[in-house]
Every structure is written in structure tokens, then in C-alpha cells.
Design goal:
With 225 residues, this protein is of the alpha+beta class. Helix content is 28%, strand content 29%. About 3% of the residues have low confidence.
Length: 225
Amino acid sequence: MPYAIQTLRLDELDGLNPDNALSAEEKERYASFKIEKRRREWLGGRMALKQAVQKHHNTLFGHLPQALITARPDEKGKPRLYIDGQLSAIPVSISHSSEYAAAAVGLKEGMALGMDLEKIEERPVSWVKEVFHPAELTSLEPEFLTAIWTKKEAALKALGIGLNASFWDVRFRSDSAEFYGSALPAWHGIGSKTILTATYGKPKGYIMSIAFELDSQGADDGRFN
């Protein structure tokens, strides 16, 4: 797969001095959070991203201090990678759930990429009806529903629109996304490329999905750390 994944347990942040890893802009953002849980999740996602870029793009950028690797949201909220203040064409995506944060980094510039991580849990029926099109509901098992949910979020992130579209406007009956309604303009905007997903049952008790554009050259397994 044309991406690399970095996961991080949030308790790995214990004892970390953010001053050594964050840029001046990130330090300001980190200090702005009023809720400790949100501050910790945000930091976990940024640290996972910095580690992924350091590990998998060192031949491109050389050994970079973590403070020079940053992500800023674009006008639609999609994170964009900046290296030493300069916008990079390498796509990135960040997610967190409960005790974990994760980041995906594209191994090819300009490719569509999105990821989502969710803990496997029972969900209320009202939520199931809101998120899933009836054609997708071939099972009501929590693991199955969590997998489809992460695919949907990852695919919408790959389009660059996140939750600005209805969950019903991206559907899965296989590993390939089908787009409808409010998601169609964004899909056409990336050239109507086939968006595939890969789903991982790890960390244990979680489901992680990566959405990425089909690589006509073929690809091997994604790099997972």
C-alpha cells in the first residue's frame, strides 16, 4: 500500500516535554486547549505524525527535528503537512480514539489519503440508522459496524471534506468506496479516482481504516508501526 502508519498509545506521552517536539505555533495551540483530554488527544496525533514522517521520509527530508514537522488545517479542516514552514505535497491524515492516536503518511506526493481509528463498542440503534445506508447493513455486529464506519470516515477524509458530507453519501459493499450526493463534487474534484480501503484489526480492540486512491502500478503492504 502507498502509505505508512504510526500508532501511539496516549500514555506514551507521560513525561514528554512538548517544548522539545512542538513548533512555536503548535505550542500556542497546545496551550489553548481547556480540556486535558482534548489536549492529550491533539498532542498524540501530532506526535504520531512527526514520528511517521521521520521514519518514512528521511531519505527525502533527511533527519528532521520534530519541531520542524507540523500539520496545519486547510480551509476544509484537512491537515496539510509543513516541513520547516513550507507546504509539502505529501498527504497526511490523523485520528484518535480512546487510548490511542494514529497518523498515516502517503508515500507518494499528491495522492488522496485518509484514515480513521475507532474503538470497537456497541452503538445505539439511532446512530446505526443515521450512519449506515440499509444496503450496507449485512451485519449488526459491533466489529462489522465499526469497520464500515472507519471506512466511511477515512474515505471522506481522503476526499478532503471530512464530516462535511452525509455518511450516506459514501457507501461500502466491498473495499471500494461508492460516492453519492454531497460527496460527488469532491470525488470529481480528485478526478473520480477509485478510492480503496484497507482495514486493520489493531491495536487490539480497535479498527483502523486507510482510504487511498488506486495505484495503477500496484503496491505492497502498507508500513505499520
